[in-house]
Amino acid sequence: MKKREYLPQIKLSDSQKERLNAEIKAFYLDERGEEIGMIEQMQLLELFERKMAPVIYNKALDDAKQWFVQMMDNMDSDYYTLYKDEN
Question: What is the pTM of this model?
Answer without folding.
Answer: 0.60
